[in-house]
Amino acid sequence: MRGFAPLSRLAAVIGALMVIMFSRSLSAACAGFIAGLICLLLNEGGRRAIKAGAAGLAVCAATAIIDPLFSHRGMTILLFVNDRPYTLESMLYGLELGLSLSGAGVWLTVLRGLVNEREMLGIFGRFSPKLAMTISMTLGFIPRLIRKSRRIREAQRGAGLFSGDSPSGRLEEVSAVFTACMAWSAEAAAGAAQSMNARGFGTHRVTFSDRRTLRLKDYLFISIVLLLTISGLVLSALGGATEFFPRVSFGRYEMAMAAVYMAECILPIIILAKERLRWTLCTARG
Amino acid sequence: MDAVYCEGLTFKYNDAKAPALEGIDLKVGRGELVLLMGRSGCGKTTLLKLLKPEIAPFGELSGSISLLGKKAESPQPMVGYAAQSPEESFVSDTVYGEIMFAPENAGLSAEEVRRAAAETITRFGLGKFLRRKLDELSGGEKQLVSLCAALVMQPEILLLDEPFSRLDPVTAEDISSLILRLNREAGTTVIIAEHSTELLFAECDRVIFMENGRITANTSPREMCGVSAADSFLPAAARAFLGHEKCPLTVREGRRLLAEIPHAKEVALPEARVFGEEALRTDGLRFALERRGEDILDGVDIVLHKGEHLALIGANGCGKTTLLRCLAGLTKAYSGTVKVFGKRMKKPAGMVALLPQEARDIFIQPTVREDYIFALKAMEKPEKMADEMLAKMGCEHLADVHPYDLSGGETQLCTLGRVLLCEPDILLLDEPTKGLDAVSRKAFGGLIRGLCNEGKAVLTVTHDLESAAELADSCAILCGGRVESLMPAGEFFARAGSLSTAAGRISRGEVENAYTVERLRAAVWGAD
Description:
The complex is a heterodimer. Chain A contains 9 helices and 2 strands. By secondary structure, chain A is mainly alpha-helical. Chain A folds into 2 domains: 187 residues, no CATH class; 58 residues, no CATH class. In chain A, strands 1-2 form a two-stranded antiparallel ribbon. In chain A, strand 1 and strand 2 form a beta hairpin. The longest helix of chain A is centred in the middle third of the chain and has 32 residues. The radius of gyration of chain A is 25 Å and the shape is globular. The model of chain A has no long low-confidence stretch (mean pLDDT 88). By secondary structure, chain B is α/β, with parallel strands linked by helices. Chain B folds into 3 domains: 155 residues, Rossmann fold, CATH 3.40.50; 69 residues, no CATH class; 229 residues, 3-Layer(aba) Sandwich (Rossmann fold), CATH 3.40.50.300. The longest helix of chain B is centred in the middle third of the chain and has 17 residues. Chain B is globular, with a radius of gyration of 24 Å. Chains A and B meet through helix 6 and helix 7 of A and helix 2, helix 3, helix 4, strand 16 and helix 11 of B.
C-alpha cells in the first residue's frame, strides 16, 4: 500500500480496528481476525502471519476456556465444574472476546508494517508539529539512554566495582547506574536545549514540511473506508451484535454488518494482493 | 564590514570568582578562516558561545559584540554553531529529522524548508544515510550530520568547537577538507576552536592564542611560530624547526627545509627495554557479535609484560574497544584464551582495569572525592585512599568539583585516579589522549610512564600516532581483527610507512629513526 499516503494506510487499519472492537459480533470478529492475517501474509510474508495466527488462536482458546469458569450464564450446559455449569454460550462469548483481542493485535501488527515511525510523525505533525517534534526527540533519546546506561555499567565493572553476582550487589549496581543516568539525562537535556536554541527553536512557528500530500485516490480511499466504518458501526448499534445469552443467536443486522465489514477489510487485501502480484510477476524481473 | 567585531569583551559566569574572558578585542573579516588555540578551559568555548547569542551563557557581560555589522542579538540565523560533541547536540532520531530541524523552526514555508534540506543533503552527500537512525552512525558520520545541521540555513559565519577531537585521523582529514572547501568556495567565515593543529593550521588566515581568558597572540600562522607560549600547540613541522628563521608549517615545507639545512643522517634508536614477567597473554582470541556474523577479533595474539607500555594502533571500527572489553572481562570471546600472570582469566577481579573512552562514564557521584569514596566503599577499601590518590594525580584542587565540570585533561587524570583505586596490575586505556590539549597530553603521558616504572603493565589502544611514538615501549597495528607487527616502538615507527608520524614523514629519506619531534630536533639542531 506504499502507493497510498500514510494517512490512507492508517485509515484502513483504524477502520478495521473500530468495527472489530466496537461491534461485539462473533462473525465480524472472526472476519476481522482472518482478514488481518491475510494482510499480514501479503505484506510481511508467511512466517509472520503464521506466528501472529498461532498467537491469536492461543489467546482465543484461552479466553474460550477460561470465560465459562467465571460466567455461568447460558442454556446449553456442556459440563459442571465445581458444581457450577460450564456453558457453550459463555464459551462462545469468550471466543468472541479472544477473536476481538487477537484481531486487534493482528491489525496493529499490520499497521506497524504499513506505516513507519517517520510517516506516523508526518501524520500527527500535520495537526501538531510540536508534538511530532517531541515524539521524534523522545525516540532519539531512548536509544542514547540505553547505550549510556550500558557504558556506565561497563565503566564501573572495568574499574573493579560490582564484580560480585550477589542480589544486593546487583541492586547497588542498578541504583548507582540509574543515578548516573539521571545526572547524564539532565546534562543531555541542557545540551539538547542549547542545540535547539542554536538552531532557532522558539523564534518562529514550527513548519510542517512533510511532502506527502493526499492525492485523488487517497481521498477516494479514505472516503470509502469512512463510509464503510460508519455503516458498520450504525448497523452494529441498530442490532448487529451477537446475542450470546440465554442462547446464541445472530443479531438482526449482523449479517449485513459483517458484509459491510468484510468489504472494508477486503479493500487493503485487494491493494496488497495486487502489489504482491506485481512484484512477483513484473517488477522483480525488470 | 567585519564578520565579527568584539571590543573590550569581558565575561564572568554567574557563580565564578574570576572572569572567563577578559578584555577581548577581536576582529574577524568576512570569509576569513580563524583558528582559536589554547589550553582546555582558557575560554575558547565561552567566546564561541558568546558569538552565537541564542546560546550565550548566563553571566556578567561587558564590552560589545557585533556580528556582520550589527549588534549581536538573538536570533542570529546567519551564525551556525556546531558543538564539540555531536551526539549531545542531536535533537532528532534520524538524519533527516536533524537536518530539517533548523529550517522547520525558521518560519519558512514548507516548500522552502524542503528546498533548504534538499540542497544541503545533495551538496554534502548525506543521501545515502538520510533515513538512518542517528545512533547507528559512525563518529565521522555524526560529525558530518552535526556540521550539515549547522549549515542548512547557509550561515555566513560558522563556529566550530573542537570538530576533530572525537575523530580518527582519516575522518578528521575528510571533515577538515570539507571545512576548507566551505571557506574557500562558499566564502563562509569559519572560526574553529581546536587542539589538533596538524590539519588546518597552515591554511588559516589567522591564528588566535588564548591564555586564561585573554587573547595573548592574534597573528598569521607563520608569525605564531614566534610566540613562545604557543610552542606546544604548533603543528609537528613547526615544533621540529622552532627557532629556525624559516619556520615550516606543513610536512611538505618541513621536508623542503630539511633538505636545505645541515642535519645528522641518523638518530640512534632507543635501546629496546627488556621486560621480565609476562602480565597478559592472549592466544587466538576470536570475537563476533553473532554466531554467523563476521569476526571482529580474528585470532588476536598479544603478549604484555610487567612494566611495559604497549600501544595498539588502529582505525575506527577495527575492534580496538572490543579487544579491551574482552581483556577486561566485560564480554567473552567465543574462542581463544586470555592469561593473566600465566593463569586463565575467568573474571579480572581487580587485576585488570579499563579506562573507558568516554572517561565521564565512570563518575556516578556529584563530586570527584565523593565518587572516589563511593568506589572505595564498594571495593571495601579504606576511604583515606581517596585523598592519597587525588594527591598522586595532582588533582587535590578538583576534589570538590562536579565531574561534568572538569576540562578534558582534568577528566582524564581524575578518571585514571578512579581506575587506579582498584590497584590493578594491568591497565587498559581506550583512546586516553583523545581530545586532550598538548599540555594535558604531556602530563597524562608522564603519569603513565610513572605507572610503568612502578611495574604496572599498560595496554593502550589509540589512533594517536604521535602519543604512541612518544610514550609506548612496544607498538602493533590492529587490523582486520588481528594484531600485526608487534615490536619495540622505536623499530615500529622507524619502519612505518603510511602510519608514520608527522616527524617521520618530514624526515623520510633524510634522517633515519627521527619519528618524533624531539628526535627530529636532535638531528637538526644536534648537527650544528
